[in-house]
Specification:
Strand content: under 5%
Distance between the termini: 141 Å
Shape: rod-shaped
Helix content: over 70%
Number of strands: 0
Largest sheet: none
């Protein structure tokens, strides 16, 4: 290659390099302006301070935005520290806000990780709180149910203890025993057994005295139904002692001077 050609090539290379450097400076300056427009002081500082001091107003821009960038980075560090404190204190909502405010600097990626952690812990805490509320509500409902059951049992016991006072008292306390034999054992409560024992015991006494002749095939359900029906049909006698009314009902239904007396009695 001739010396002239070599020189021309070198000049061309140097010219291209100068043009490329100029383009890079322009791009970097434009990047700084875009960062300014978006409010990114850190990006503006990085762009302007990477340019030669005497390139356009890069020196002045660098000085301005470097100071702003340092304040912004300091604010990000404060936000990160406050986010960590809130995270450790279990204040996950505050932690989310603080970590979201870390939008630049060397803590940005760590803040993203901590933000994800805060969101996960917040969701977990919300689920646990909901489960706790449900458990408390369930326990409260059970307590109220138990209390109501105790009230009902006391009321039933009170009614049962007074069934002999009158036909009306017997009717209120023992009407459910018209299905005594048909109910499964688990479906019979203490009141049912008390009423059944009272009816059966008094019927046995009536049979033993020969006042009435109740067949052995007659069960508690029939005896109770007989008593209830008698009270309903003889409302004027409803306030008389229940024992006297049951004896009348049995005598009316099972007198010993009829064919019924031929059946085996208890």
């Amino acid at each position: 290659m001739k010396p002239f050609s070599m020189m021309a090539l070198a000049i061309a290379v140097l010219f291209c390099a100068a043009v490329c450097r100029a383009d890079q400076k322009d791009d970097l300056y434009l990047k700084g302006q875009q960062a300014v427009n978006s409010g990114d002081s850190i990006g503006a500082s990085n762009a302007f301070c990477a340019l030669p001091y005497d390139y356009k107003d890069a020196g002045a821009q660098c000085a301005t935005f470097r100071a702003l960038a340092q304040k912004t980075i300091f604010r990000y560090r404060i936000n990160y520290a406050e986010g960590m404190a809130a995270l450790q204190a279990g204040d996950f909502s505050t932690a989310e806000i603080k970590f979201r405010n870390v939008k630049g600097g060397n803590l940005r990626e760590q803040a993203k990780d901590r933000l994800a952690e805060a969101q996960q812990l917040k969701a977990q805490a919300a689920a646990e709180a909901q489960a706790h509320i449900a458990a408390v509500a369930k326990q409260q409902a059970k307590t109220e149910l138990d209390q109501q059951q105790q009230i009902d049992e006391r009321a039933a016991a009170s009614r049962t203890m007074h069934i002999s006072e009158s036909g009306s008292a017997f009717q209120r306390a023992c009407v459910q025993n018209t299905q005594f034999e048909e109910k499964a054992f688990a479906g019979r409560d203490m009141q049912s057994f008390f009423c059944a024992g009272w009816v059966r015991g008094l019927t046995d006494q009536v049979n033993a005295r020969g006042t009435a002749c109740v067949p052995s095939s007659v069960g508690v359900s029939q005896e109770t139904a007989l008593m209830i029906n008698y009270v309903r049909q003889h409302s004027a006698e409803a306030n008389e002692p229940a024992a006297a009314l049951l004896e009348k009902a049995l005598l009316e239904q099972y007198p010993c001077n009829t064919e019924a007396s031929g059946a085996a009695t208890r």
